[in-house]
Design brief:
With about 150 residues, the protein is mostly helical. The chain has six helices and no strands.
Length: about 150
């Protein structure tokens, strides 16, 4: 069909179909790249289990943060949520705390912040600390007290 004979509605549908096709092709291409990289890592034995474990831990920590912290601290740690909690990202001063101090605050609560639900292991809290630290600048991470 010639574009000159299409109605504006048909043209819009054609454009939307084209966009959808591009999105599908992009998704398939990215999936192919991921599968190729994963296969290469498996064949070469390049830290595949370490990379997968780190990815899984990041996902677990993100889910935990979103369900337990984001309401008050914001989805990107920007603060100012439900109780106007301080930012945890590079705009705040959380980076001035040690990991142990952060974990103590998470476990016991502080001020208006309630203690996180009981039953969280130190390992889970360490994952959460690592998740939060990814928002900090390189300089802040380097200057964080031990």
């Amino acid at each position: 069909m010639d574009n000159k004979t299409l109605t504006p509605e048909e043209k819009a549908q054609q454009k939307e179909a084209f966009r959808f096709a591009i999105m599908v092709l992009t998704g398939v291409s990215l999936l192919g790249v991921f599968i190729t990289m994963f296969a290469f890592m498996q064949v070469r034995g390049i830290g595949s289990s370490v990379a997968m474990r780190a990815t899984i831990e990041l996902g677990e920590a993100e889910r935990f943060f979103m369900s337990s912290c984001a309401t008050c601290h914001g989805r990107q740690g920007e603060g100012g949520g439900l109780i106007d909690a301080p930012p945890l990202n590079q705009d705040g001063d959380t980076w001035q705390l040690t990991d142990a101090e952060m974990m103590t605050i998470m476990r016991d609560g502080k001020g208006e912040m309630p203690a996180l639900r009981s039953g969280n292991s130190d390992k889970e809290l360490q994952k959460l600390v690592r998740y939060i630290k990814r928002w900090w600048t390189h300089e802040q991470r380097a200057q964080q007290p031990n």
